[in-house]
Specification:
Blueprint: E1 5-8, E2 15-16, H1 18-31, H2 39-43, H3 50-60, H4 68-81, E3 88-89, H5 93-102, E4 106-110, H6 115-124, E5 133-135, H7 147-157, E6 164-168, H8 171-180, E7 184-187, E8 203-205, H9 209-216
Parallel strand pairs: 1-4, 1-6, 4-5, 6-7, 7-8
Antiparallel strand pairs: 2-3
Helix pairs in contact: 1-4, 3-4, 7-8
Length: about 220
Amino acid sequence: MQPSLLVFDLDGTLIDSAPDMHRAVNLVLADRGCAPLALSEIRTMVGDGASALIARALAARQCVNTDPAEALEQFLAHYEANPTSATSTFPGVADVLGRLTANGLTLALCTNKPGKLTKMIIERLEIERYFARVVAGDSMPFRKPDPRALMEVIDGFGTPKEAAIMVGDSEVDAATANAANVPFILMTYGYHRGPIQDIASIATLDDFGELATLLHA
């Protein structure tokens, strides 16, 4: 069946947000007298939501006697202060999203990032207009890799699963799509943790621009 709905992950798929998350995480660590993390380390911790990111960062630096809820609150405050100071869309993203919508495809977002931050970022990066719906990490009681997060989007449009495709960059996105029995396209430049060949997908793309070519074909 020809695809009519594309559901995108955000971080690592459409935007390179790791530098701003890196800054906010290290401010939290500094508040606790803990050593900073390298940007490369932060990239491996992204994907399961802000609470998981902070938990991994605290564990990596063995920050003991820390209230995770308080650390998360501080992280979000630091992050929300300027979530796009060093964040940008990956090359070709805006152009391809525009081409896909012009060709009649419906586009949606399914991210584990909090809704407030998601809205701020996609507005500032001027890609919000391309998405007919945004489901964030706090939109529902469940989030990726729970397949209900993805199915909430697909069912909301009344689209058959066979006519939907999920596009993401990580094991979390692949697990979500596979659990929902929805085809998955992997962007290799993102925040995956393990080898690319271990992530199940119908296609692996090294450049976002390749997505339009693949779908046209």
